[in-house]
Every structure is written in C-alpha cells, then in structure tokens.
C-alpha cells in the first residue's frame, strides 16, 4: 500500500514509523452537562498528576543547574500550585466547561499577566506557561509523551504538522525521513528538512489509524510516495533507486570546485541559504560561494533564552571566521506567523501571517532589534557583512530602521566598541515592496527576492495550508511578472538582484531566472550542486529564450507543463 505527497526534500529513506502527536491541542468549547462536571474535575487532576510525574522523570536525567532543568522546575512549581488547580476546578463548574477549556482560560490569564510585566525574563516566561497549558490539553486529549532522545533506529516521523520550533527539537541523527499531513515546498519545516538533507514528504493524506508505530515504511522522495509495509519486490526496486540517487550525488560532488557559469561562460553567483553555524560549516562540502540568506531566527528555535549582544557578537564572529571572506548575508530576525520563537513572548493574533511579522516585529520591539544590530555592526569590524531586512513594504519602514541603526552606532561609539560598515538590502517579498521599490533603492546596496512570501502575499494563499500548495505554486505568471518587474527596476538603478526563495533551488527553474536577469541565486545547501549542474549545462541564450517564452504564458498549468517539458 502507498500514499502520495509532495516531495519537499528528495531522497529515499527506509525506516520504522513513529507518530508524533504535537497537535493534540484542539479544544472543544461546547458546554458540559452538569452530571459530567465531576468527571472533568477528576480528569483535570489526573492530567496535572501525569504531567508532574513526566517532568519529574525528565528532571532526574538532567544536570541540576542547567537552563533546561530550571525551566522544568518552574513548570513543576505551577503544577504543584494548589490555588491554581482550585481556580481551574472552580472554572469547570462555574462556566460548565471542559477541563481543557478551563486550563486554556486560566493559564491564558496567567500568561497575559506575565507578558505585561516590564521584566523581560518574566515576559518570556509567558510563552512557557502557554506551552505547559498546551501540553496539559494534549494530555487530556489522549496524547502520549514520547521520549525522543531514546530513539535508536532509523525513524520515519509521521505527524499532522510540525512547526520549525518542534523540528529543532528532533534528534536528527535518528530521523531517516519526515512525512506530514500538511505543508508545502515553501513551508519553513520543508526548508529545514531540506537543509538538513532529510527526505521529507508533505501534504501526504495518510490515515494515522492504518499505520501503527513501528511499521516498516519507505519514504520514496523521488516519486513522492510513502510505501507502507513494502513487499520484497518493492524493497528491491526502491533499494536500487536509492543506489542510483546516491550515485547521482557522487557525480554532482565532482562539480564542487568548478565555477558556476553557463556553457558559454556567463558567470552567476550561487550562494547558500542557511540557518545555523552547523550549516555554515558545510558550505565547503558543496562549494558554495557564500551565504545569500542567513535566517537568524532559525538558530533561536530551540533555545528558551534570547542571546544577549555579546553572545550574538561572538556568534557572528565565529560565522565570519568560517566564511573566510566569502559573501555573508545576514537577515535580521524574521519572527511571527509560523516562526514563533520559544524565547520571545508573542501575542495571539487572529491573522499572524498578516500581523506582527518580520520587520514589523522588529520595529515594535526596538530593543530586540538594536541588540542584534549592535552585535552585527561590531562583528562587521572583522569581515564583510551584507545585512537585509525581511517583510519590508515601504520606505517609511526603512527610514525607521536606519534611524535605529544610527542610534546603535552612536551607542557603540559612546561605549568605545569598534564597529564596521555594512551593505544594506531588503527581501522583496510583498507586492507592495515591488511597487514601492523605486523609492527604496537609493538607500540600498542590493536586494533579494523572497518568492516564498511573495507568492503567499500575491496569491493571498497561506504557504503552510496543504489545500492551497498545489494550486498556488511560486512558478506562476503573477509571481514571474513581479520578479521581472523587480529585476528591471533594480537594474535601471544599478542595484544587484539576488533571489533566495525556494524557486531558485529548482534546477529546472534556475536557468529561467538567470534568463530573466537575476544576478545571483541563493539556494538550499542540498540543492546547490544540482542547480550548478543545470547552469553549467545550458547556454545563456537558451536561458534568455526560456525566460521570454515563460513570461508570455498566462496560465499556471502552461508554465508547469513548459518547465517540466524542458529536457
Ligand atoms: C521567502 O519568503 O522567499 C524567503 C526567502 O524567506 P522565508 O522563506 O524565510 O520566509
Ligand atoms: Mg520570507
């Protein structure tokens, strides 16, 4: 038996299934009949007791004064708080609601009170309180806690969804593949899986009840299928496919030190998208010329404390050391929407993708922004850094950012700390950034087109919603037109254009982008050599004609068909 899905990270993986139930947190708001209230009260106490026992066991395995241990201790204090339990219990009977609703309500109040405090440590604690409440609700809904650190064999994770923060918690050395019900090529979990080189299938509509934990499966990330309990013939066929896949990787490896240029010698910048120091240490494995996008928020996904200026400064200095003078493009924190950081208190928003995201979050929290900027300015004393800002829509935002940057420089001078000059850019990822580009270019040294969000905001289609991912891909007439418009405006103003969305990582699409005039592509580490191979095997003239032809097509299916038909 097999089910299909979208390949977001290629490769063949053999392994055993483990279901992760991160999303057992649904709350049913219907009123409870009075004769069932006593049972709800019992369930509440049981959930508290089970969670307490689980945390005590985890605590016994940790070093006493580690940060992790102190966080667990803080959660235990809440679980032992008799007044809190009584308040939740009283809410069940007073409002006639389930234990889950009462927990959500009372923990929510606690979190709001903490978030409103001036003390940043306590404000961060608000997120921990909400996290504990989600875990309790998951328990009430029957979720089992799995100790991921004990995974031994090659595991294929199956889950409804996985946030980037949850991905960061996975022991990747034991994970052979990932299969999710949700998400698409440009979702952040897909991007993380690809960068980690873990085969992943998203938007895969398997039925969890039909696949028990421990079932042998093969994730076929070439043809986009999950094969459940394969027979001998299927295993043999997929093993041979895996061998071919590995042989292809070996072949690509030979291109590592060759220049990125078309057959007729047109050079193209080919850089990498990364999210950690570990990724940076792998740049040389694929011969990347530098970093075109460093997603700084990814390195904060599994930490509960925000690094201070000094820690960030050391981090960027380490990165510069590894880069050894190559292009290093840092994007300032791009938090919000699906990228929630456990170390930052975030407000609940009805429409987070349209809310306090990217640069809006930074402008709303200038101290957070300035801490990062000061660390980067100081690091720039030790090597060249290009800095870019996510989700910029209009020139006023840039003005505000540059004002903060000037203040940071003044503070550094006052504190007698040295700093270097930066090159500045923006990620063009909203239609209004394209429309307002002309007014912003005078203050910019470069721009980078973020087609993942540009697609989401042009098509008004949530990039994480599995029902929309096929219908609204980035390769669409609307997005290509905006990309062309961006390139033309930037080039008229002599500003270089990079493209760092997932579109660039597709070896069939990269030549087309070059034909449209893109100067530089920034791609996933795992796709870099495939893209290089595609560019080295095509004439620039062919890139130009592909672009000309593609830009005339008015339908998504025509475009897809055209691209799939190339070679
Ligand atoms: C993009 O939106 O295209 C982009 C590169 O940024 P991210 O995927 O991190 O939102
Ligand atoms: Mg983006």
UniProtKB/TrEMBL annotation:
The protein's required cofactors: Mg(2+)
The enzyme's E.C. designation: 2.7.3.9
Record's subcellular location: Cytoplasm
Catalytic activity: L-histidyl-[protein] + phosphoenolpyruvate = N(pros)-phospho-L-histidyl-[protein] + pyruvate
Domain Phosphotransferase system enzyme I N-terminal: 4-125
Top-level taxon in the UniProt lineage: Bacteria
GO biological process: phosphoenolpyruvate-dependent sugar phosphotransferase system
Residues at which Mg(2+) binds: 429, 453
Chief location: cytoplasm
PANTHER family documented for this protein: PHOSPHOENOLPYRUVATE-PROTEIN PHOSPHOTRANSFERASE (PTHR46244:SF6)
The protein's role, per its UniProt record: General (non sugar-specific) component of the phosphoenolpyruvate-dependent sugar phosphotransferase system (sugar PTS). This major carbohydrate active-transport system catalyzes the phosphorylation of incoming sugar substrates concomitantly with their translocation across the cell membrane. Enzyme I transfers the phosphoryl group from phosphoenolpyruvate (PEP) to the phosphoryl carrier protein (HPr).
Name recorded for this polypeptide: Phosphoenolpyruvate-protein phosphotransferase
Protein's organism: Shewanella fidelis
